[in-house]
Amino acid sequence: MESSDWRPVVVLLVLVVAAIVLLHAASIALRTIRAPLHAGPFSGGLEPQEHALSRFHVRWYPVTMIFLAFDMEMLFMYPWTKVVPAVGTSAVVEMFLFLGVLLAGVAYAWREGAFRWS
Questions:
Q1: Measured between alpha carbons, how far is 15 from 8 in angstroms, rounded to an integer?
Q2: Using N-to-C axis directions, what is the helix angle for 60-87 and 89-112, rounded to 10°?
Q3: Alpha-carbon distance 101 to 107, whole Å?
Q4: What is the rounded distance in angstroms from the CA atom of residue 63 to the CA atom of residue 113?
Q5: How many CA atoms lie within 13 A of 39 on its CB side?
Q6: Closest CA relative to residue 53, chosen from 76, 37, 71
Q7: Lowest mean pLDDT among 14-18, 48-52, 93-97
Q8: What is the distance between the alpha carbons of residues 38 and 44, in angstroms, rounded to a whole number?
Q9: Contact indicator for 76, 98 with CB cutoff of 8 Å
Q10: CA atoms within 13 A of residue 75's CA, in its CB half-sphere
């Protein structure tokens, strides 16, 4: 093997290392020292009771999961409307099976109390 075979690899490696060093130097040169963030009004203009980036209460997670289930339903139903005329009855059966699975998930969530707020 000749040294000319490795020349492009070495040049690329040197360029990548130089770019990383330059980016790191630029980040150090442009760094500013900032004061801590003040928690100003973020919800309806009222003074917040908690910080905007605080954690959510655990009761929001089931609501989020139910929203995602219905969101996935709509994500699959929009393209399905375009496929139904071409595919026919089997597409309708598959969509009703999919909706049945989602309905079973909603029934399970309802039974477990996901729709109760308190």
A1: 10
A2: 170
A3: 10
A4: 11
A5: 10
A6: 37
A7: 48-52
A8: 17
A9: yes
A10: 7
Q: Closest by alpha carbon to 51, among 39, 43, 60, 42?
A: 39
- Report the predicted TM-score, pTM, of the whole model to 2 decimal places: 0.45
Q: Which residues, at least 6 apart from 106, have a Cβ–Cβ distance to it below 8 Å?
A: 66, 69
CA-to-CA distance for 43 and 39, rounded, in angstroms?
A: 11
For 69, the token pair is 């289930």
- Predicted confidence (pLDDT) per residue in 66-93, tens digit: 888 788 788 888 888 888 899 999 989 9
Residue 99 to residue 82: CA distance in whole angstroms: 17
- Who contacts 48 (Cβ-Cβ below 8 Å, separation ≥6)? 39, 40, 41, 42
